[in-house]
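Why predict the complex rather than its parts? Because the way molecules touch one another can change local conformation, and only a joint prediction can capture that. The input here totals 600 residues.
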Amino acid sequence: MLLVRVALAAIMIVLGATILIRMLAFGLRAETISGIVLGAAMVALGVHRIATIARLRGVP
Amino acid sequence: MAASTPNPQLRRSVTPWGSFSWGYSDVGADIFVGLGLVLAAAAGASNVAFLFAGVVYVCIGLAYTELAATYPVAGGGQYFVMRGLGDIFGFIAGWAVLLDFTIDITLFAWTAVDYSSQLLPALVNSTHPWIHFTATLALIVGLCTLNVIGVRESTAFNGFVSALDVLSETCILCFGFLFAFRPELLIHTMQTAWPSSYQLMLGTSLAIISFVGLESISQAAQETQRPASVVPRTSIALILTILIFALAYSNLALGMHPWHPIVDAHGHAMAFWQIFPNNPDNQGKAVALLAAQVPIWGALAAFYVPVLGAVLLLISSNSGVFGSSRIAYAMSSANLLPSIFKSVNARFRTPAVSILAFSGVAVFELVFAAFPSLHPQALTIYAHFFRNETGLDFLADLYAFGAATSYSFVFLGLIALRLTDPLSPRKFKIPLNVPIAFRGERAEFPVVGVIGFAGIVSILIFTLFTHPIGRIAGPSWLLVGIVLYFFYRRHRKLPIFRSQPHDWRKSQVEILRMAGELELMDEYVANLKASDERKAKAGA
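Output of the joint prediction:
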């Protein structure tokens, strides 16, 4: 279960970063803001999940 | 045969994952309903509508997280507002939440049937309205019966379905964004299919229904051990997950190259989002249609997503039946509703009166929503008075109104509680606070609360402006409630516009003790003592 949760969090970070990069390739404009926020939120959620798991497992 | 029970307490046995899945099975199902409606209304700006509503939702989620961690009681918004602003405002917020719960029952049962119709064409509303109506009614009556006799889905079942759904949605997004998403197509769609201001406001007001159900955070808080520590952790993951799915689906729908070509009646190629305007059947099962168009995974998703969606929506519908009885119980205990709503059936030990009453309202709403499709002659009346709003539109209208109203009051409650109750320890605080002095105490003014309030009030204005039924039926519901409240309070010889006396200090100590937050309880008692000493010194 732990492995699945870490894997999902890692997928979230990779996918979020991919979306972020693909959207940023078109520049910071009104049409890309929603995609940029989406990518950033995905990276944030992945990091939050991994940090939470690490904290609960006592990883420094 | 009804008998009152002497204040039974809920067992605190919900785990962090249980707390997350409780919220997820409630709020997570909303995107299954909201996506199609928003795509139909806001077209090329659907992702912008979701972004605006999503930002407001993050503020609301943070407000609920702070309030539920500080006051872990099941009353939720109604309790926070009553404590912050007084009895009558607590009643209005609770009454708006009750409206949402009754709509929740009907709307989610309706869309559970819509999702099932993807695999069972006999359930399609436009071609078989009577079968669709009967199936929805049967679901509502079935859920009501199960709740009356005391059968609820277990936390483990909720957890299993939520885990399956998170996994499934992640796979859909992975395959969708890696193999079908074209950023240039998204930009092209946004430039060529940008809606009018009216449609954008309509879409934004509908987008908020994808983020309704945060009451579950406070309901879970009451049944979680050490909620001040657990609730913030699970809530932040919940808020981000829901936001991501809403933004991801809307961006994908606008910028997706469909796996299977979609053509109109004349054989012309269509973009994926174009299958939603003027097609209520598609609007009710948008996620299943999108999943089927995702390359590779879509072959499998076409079969299981309608089933998974229907199960998740049914759980959410059930939470409407269960939640309305629980809120009514909390309101009745606070003398905001007659005591009959907290009576427990002697045989089944469930709040049967509340369940039957609010399920009855849900059935009435179903009949009103389905009437034009059952009797097409009624369409002229609906067209004349309600701009043809029927079925899903009508339910979504009221859902948006109830959510925007109750959330507006919750923000006011948050701000008021920060000022009037600065001594309660807050293990989680919304960021961006301005330190101020208020009535001799140091308080922190929540800037995010003001931003969120402005956002949700603007959505409430959009709702009133763009929803012909919402602006009539919504305020009418509130008006009827206020009249009932007036007569009830007068009958009980309780103050109508003022609050009855509450000993919040004593009740807060009791709340923290019951939650197992003994350190916070000690901190609170110490804060009270120090404050009293300060005031005594100042008085001397």
